[in-house]
């Protein structure tokens, strides 16, 4: 995903107070979201749709992260509006991913596509055209200007002078460490059930938990920039790579479950449906083996502990006394 240049330029937030840093980080998320919004309107293609969808998810995670500092009802209402857009973009994404998958599907022995594939591709192509037209109309109806104004007003309401459920004067590092650990705890709670291959629901929940953890880490990334230039790979970057591995595997598992539903709904019995479902099951079994291997090879606890330690302490000796 390409991130607008504005998001990479931030003041030194390592030792800032929560109210100041949260306002700045929320503003960056809004800039990112509306930059991708305008890009999607100018050039409607798969990459733009994906970037806007990811930006909408990151914005929602930012609202959830800093909700203790914001008016509860406004946060909930704006988050729901952004979520509607996320869902609309997801429908088109699912069809696009299915077209990519099934168009490249071949039998290992013959090299030919399984029976029923051509019929499914024709159906999905028609659905893709209809979905794109509907999304184009929906984006035109979406009240982005009003949303932009309301989000800007919300950010301005982050002040240290109103009573909130969290102390606005605590250091952003201490708050961020706790917020990161909160998402990690949810991942750890969901993992045992997801290790049962047949429990697709548990794997779906874990996928969402990993996604939110990764977005939260990316939102807090400015606090970790330049923590130790001598290290080739910082703990935060290591964790991001680990999270991406898990997220990719769980995402592909979920895609295969969605594809199986598409086959059952769109391919008639006796015309290749059973063969397609068998092929999908074989792909899923291989992916699940990779997922279990990732669980054995890359535990999260040590990396999260290192990042939490970095977030709680001043990152540079010359900034230890600097507070905003």
From TrEMBL:
Pfam families: CHAD. The keyword rRNA processing does not apply. The keyword Coiled coil applies. Keywords: Coiled coil. Residues 121-157 form a coiled coil. Residues 11-308 form the CHAD domain. It comes from the Bacteria. PANTHER family: CHAD DOMAIN-CONTAINING PROTEIN (PTHR39339:SF1), SLR1444 PROTEIN (PTHR39339). This is CHAD domain-containing protein. The lineage of its organism: Bacteria, Pseudomonadati, Thermodesulfobacteriota, Desulfuromonadia, Geobacterales.
């Amino acid at each position: 995903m390409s991130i607008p240049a504005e998001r990479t330029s931030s003041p030194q937030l390592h030792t800032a107070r929560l109210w100041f840093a949260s306002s700045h980080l929320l503003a960056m998320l809004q800039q990112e979201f509306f930059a991708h919004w305008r890009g999607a309107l100018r050039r409607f293609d798969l990459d733009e749709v994906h970037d806007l969808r990811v930006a909408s998810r990151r914005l929602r995670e930012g609202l959830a992260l800093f909700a203790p500092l914001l008016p509860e009802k406004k946060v909930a209402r704006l988050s729901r509006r952004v979520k509607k857009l996320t869902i609309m973009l997801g429908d088109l994404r699912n069809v696009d991913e299915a077209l990519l998958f099934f168009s490249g599907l071949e039998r290992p022995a013959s090299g030919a596509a399984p029976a029923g594939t051509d019929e499914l591709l024709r159906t999905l192509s028609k659905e893709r055209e209809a979905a794109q037209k509907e999304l184009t109309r929906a984006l035109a109806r979406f009240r982005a200007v009003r949303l932009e104004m309301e989000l800007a007003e919300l950010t301005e309401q982050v002040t240290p002078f109103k009573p909130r459920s969290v102390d606005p004067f605590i250091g952003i590092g201490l708050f961020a460490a706790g917020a990161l650990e909160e998402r990690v705890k949810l991942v750890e709670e969901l993992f045992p059930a997801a290790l049962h291959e047949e429990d697709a629901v548990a794997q779906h929940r874990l996928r969402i938990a990993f996604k939110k953890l990764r977005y939260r880490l990316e939102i807090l990334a400015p606090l970790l920039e330049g923590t130790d230039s001598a290290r080739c790979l910082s703990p935060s970057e290591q964790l991001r790579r680990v999270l991406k591995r898990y997220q990719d595997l769980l995402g592909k598992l979920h895609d295969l479950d969605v594809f199986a539903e598409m086959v059952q709904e769109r391919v008639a019995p006796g015309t290749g449906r059973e063969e397609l479902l068998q092929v999908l099951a074989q792909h899923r079994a291989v992916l699940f083996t990779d997922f279990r291997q990732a669980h054995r090879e890359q535990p999260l606890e040590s990396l999260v502990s290192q990042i939490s330690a970095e977030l709680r302490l001043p990152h540079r000796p010359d900034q230890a006394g600097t507070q905003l």
